Amino acid sequence: MPRLLPTLLSASLLLAGCASAPVPHLPAPAAPAAPVLAPKAAAAPAPTTPPDDSLDAVAWVQTALEHNLVYLETYRDAQSQLLTALHDPHWDALAKNDRVVPLNRHLKPAVVLDVDETVLDNSPYQVRLIKRGAEFDAATWSAWCREAKARALPGAVAFTQFAARHGIAVIYITNRDASLNQATLDNLRKDGFPVSGPDAFLGLGIAVPNCEQIGTQKGCRRQLISRKYRVLMQFGDQLGDFVDIMDNRDAGRAQAMAPYMKWIGQRWFVLPNPTYGSWQPALFNNDWSLPRQQRRRDMIKALHDQ
Fold first, then answer.
1. What is the pLDDT of residues 177-192, one digit of tens each?
2. What angle do CA 201, 205, 211 make, to 5 degrees?
3. What pairing do the DSSP bridges indicate for beta strands 169-173 and 108-114?
4. Residue from 162, 159, 164, 170 nearest 225 by CA
5. In angstroms, rounded to a whole number, what is the distance separating the alpha carbons of residues 100 and 225?
């Protein structure tokens, strides 16, 4: 056992020496290098939807109860006055230039109505254009008309049926192309409108003796009606449904209507159409060849904020 002592002593001294020896300074671990980031890409601009100026108008036509009430009110008001007009032999609703045969007791009583947006609702066609971002064109319009799915506007069927029951001829004047005549007649009959007699439907393209047809003006066809009928009332959504507009600018339109303002609500019944009409090109000098955005800018210029 004594032989172990030096060994143990040597070990103790070695440990003591280790305890008193200075600890070498070690550098702190380096911080991890920051990751190298790619340059931040510029944020993509939010997609924009081009304005569709007919959206609000078509939405109002299809969904606003106010739209239906205006039509119902107009036709009911007309019906309440119709028999008074019938029994007044001097009552006539044709403009001066359209009355080519003087009033006489042999003339049959009649009411004259436009078709589109006056008795038939074509707003589904407008919806199709909105969804496609498109504008009116003859091909899609003709396809829609041939479907014969346009619904009757509120009050129109009741009024025309009332007139027919009292022996008053119901005459429709339309600027639809002549190729759409049969489809239009089918649509009217399907909706319950009275359509009878050779004079009941006067489409675009009818030749009228001694009357020069100007574009799609309806004056010649109204003159044709004047030869056989005393017109009690007229209905439409455009000024041209009542009188020819030869100068389709604000001043010209006002001048054409000025002599007949007292007839509004008595002999002439104007229905609202915010979707389309001759009022639009009047705001861009009747130049449909202008690009769509230019037409839009011109229409905005025509507005006033005071």
1. 999 999 999 999 999 9
2. 100
3. parallel
4. 170
5. 9
